[in-house]
Specification:
Belongs to the LysR transcriptional regulatory family. The chain has about 290 residues and is α+β, with helices and mostly antiparallel strands. It is about 35% helix and about 25% strand. It has a 5-stranded mixed beta sheet with strand order 4-3-5-15-6, with helices on one face. A 3-stranded antiparallel beta sheet has the order 12-7-13. It has a 3-stranded antiparallel beta sheet with strand order 10-9-14, with no helix packed on it. The longest helix is centred in the N-terminal third of the chain and has 23 residues, at about 60-80. The N and C termini lie far apart (about 55 Å).
Amino acid sequence: MISLDDMMVFAKVAEKQSFTQAADDLDIGKARVSQIVSKLEQALNTRLLHRTTRSLSLTDAGLRYYEKCKLIGDIASEANAETQDANQIPSGTIRISTPSSALVDILSEFLHLYPKIKLDIIESDSYSNLIESRCDIALRASSALEDSSLYAVRLGYFRDMICATPTYLSKVETVSTPEDLLSLDWISHHIVHGDKQLTMTNNQGQVTRLVHSPKVQVRTAATVKEFVLNHLGFAIMPSFMMKEELAHGDLVRILPDVHDLEIPIYAVYQEKALMPLRVRTLIDFLKQKTDAFE
C-alpha cells in the first residue's frame, strides 16, 4: 500500500528535481529517498522520473502524479492549519512569478510586515505555467486570461506612458502628434508589442494605430528601461516603473495626453479553497496596493 509519507517524499523530489536537495530538505538519507521513489514506481507500475547522471526530470505520468500529490499535501496542510490557533502568524515560502523588477518595493514592504515569510521569486515577463514552474502565484498583465482552470484577482491596471531621456529628445524633432513617433527610434518589448503595432488613445478617446519597426526589441521591461536611459530611443512603459526617473528628470513624458491601452494586472493562482495562509495573506496585501500599479 502506498503511504502518504512516500507520496510527499516524491513530491519533494519533483519540486527540487534533485534527490540530494530533497533529502536535505526532508532530513533523511539520499539513498532512502531514491528507494522510496523506486518503490512508488514499482507499486504504480509507471516510471515517474527520467534519470541521468546529471539531471532529473518528470515524465508525463510523473508530472500528473506530482500535481495530485501536491494537491493531497495541500489538503493535509490546510486541515492541520484549520485546527491550529486562529491567530497563527503567516510563515513559510511563497514561490511567485512576476515581471522583472516590477514589485520590489511592494514585496519588500510585505516582508517587513511578515518577517516569517520567505519569497522565491521568478523574474519573468512571460506567462509562466503555474504547475510547471511550481509557483504559488503569478502576476500577469493581460486583457484576457486563457486558462479557465486558474483563479484570478484583478489588482489594478498598467497605465503605460511614452517616455525618453531629455538627451535623446534634444537630438530629434519636436513630437506633437502620435505620427511623429514614426521618425523616432523605438525600444520595444517583444511580448507586449510583438506585432510592432502601437495603439494609443488620447484624452478625448481618439484611437491611433501605427506600425513601427523597433530599433531594439527585448523581452523584459527592465531591459527596455535600460536602453531608454542610455539615450537610444523612446519606449512605452508602465508608469510605476518610471516614477523615480520622471521625478528626477532622467526621463520625460512624450505626448502627455496620449497613452497606450490600459491592461489589467492579475494575481493568478490554482486553487482558492486550499490556499495556504501565507499566499492568501500576500494576495490580500496586494489588493490593498492597487495605486502602485497605476
